[in-house]
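User: My collaborator sent over this chain with a note saying "see what the structure looks like." That's all I know about it. Can you take a look?
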Amino acid sequence: MNRIIPICLAVLSSLAVPARAATFNVTSLADSGAGSLRAAIEQANGAAGAPHVVAFQPGLTGTIALASELRITNSMTIAGPGAYLLTLDGGNATRLLRVERTGGSPRIVVISGLTLARGRAESGAEILGYDDDLSVIATIFSDNEATYRGGAIHFSEADLDLDSVILTNNRAPSTGQGAGGAIQFSAGTLTIARSYLAGNSANFGGAVRISSPRARALITDTLFQDNTAAHTGGAIDAGTMSAFRVSGSAFVGNSTGEPYGGAINYAGSNDASADGSIIENTTFSANVTRHPAGVASALAISGGHTILRNSTFAANRVAPLSANPAPRNGALWVASTGTTVDIVSTLFDDNTSGTAATPNDLAHESSSPSNPSIVNASDSLFRTMPGAVEINGTNQRNQFATVAQLKPLTTTDGGGFVPVHPLARTSPAIDRGANPGTLAWDQRGTGFARAWSDPAYRNDPVNSKADIGAYEFRGDAFFHGDFEQR
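Assistant: Without extra context I'll predict from the sequence alone. Here is the result:
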């Protein structure tokens, strides 16, 4: 698979502007002075009738080299001409933007159509934000560095919404408290949709670190690729949260240097009444924990109640250079106390540990009698034969010691830039799963039906069922349907 995945960066074509709002135009690539971006933002900051618009003169392209950060203190939209047309460059010497309320009601800030590059600061090398809600659309964050946390963005006490965003090669320190190679977030709702996070690095959370029990994260249609944590959470290190939901996404080639979470390390939800911890329609492939005592090559869960459904774990590796890996390890690892994980219609294949490439799928630490940990599994497929310790709750309609017959990871099977492992037409995963979340589509999204079965060739002659895993065989039934055999 290509390491650089193309992503469509939509530029805002129209803006709904309230009657009293004003538009301030940028006509120069200078750092300051008349017509500069700095001057336009300062004018928007001081003008009544917000939210205002900062717009760029048609045809203005190139690079704005910033000598100091730009401060946003009023509600506004900064509508760039396109991420490949205009760059804000910090020269590895300054943060680019600060979004921070100094009093009054929270502001709403929207940024679109820009590249933000080579920022440097203690926290949030590109954007530092507190209290004010921020939406970032069709924007690239590249080659930024924090000396503490949030290689590109450090945000808290407000909502951060990222849509069609690329965050690549951003970094926080790989030692000490360095966290959130691309994003450090706390206390609010973090939404990431249709985005690409790749090649970011930190000590905790190679791409994203979420560190507050008052935080929520909603991630959809997003690819995390080749992110690295020296310590924990190759792509995401998430502490105890109120909600954590991932859908239609993929974690590919992420790695961690310590035992937990080659892709994700998650401490669980603190809200027992909510169904907030759900990972569905998601692929974990080729993630690695490098530590000799590694336990979770893809996903580590250590608290709360998590539902894992209609997902695929394939080719994840625990301690691939160690001849003596930890005795209990897997692509999925579940802690021994206060944790419940429901595995439903999920596929595990070709996950291994150690230099001997011993097959491993699921690791569950022995449950504590005083504060038990429960793993339930149904309608799922495992390459290995998990023991009674691993699945110590419900165990129904599962296939064990079964080869899933997965095809190589691909983005050419109709699913856009988020890759998936297709099923071979003879796979035992076909028509043997379930769809407890009544998902309309498989991981690839609209047009790829989740529970489609060919009446003439279904494996289950009684019911039309979903396939196991993130991929639905011939889910594009509009084109295949009953007119073409498997």
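A starting point for your reply to your collaborator: Residues 37-46 form the longest helix (10 residues).
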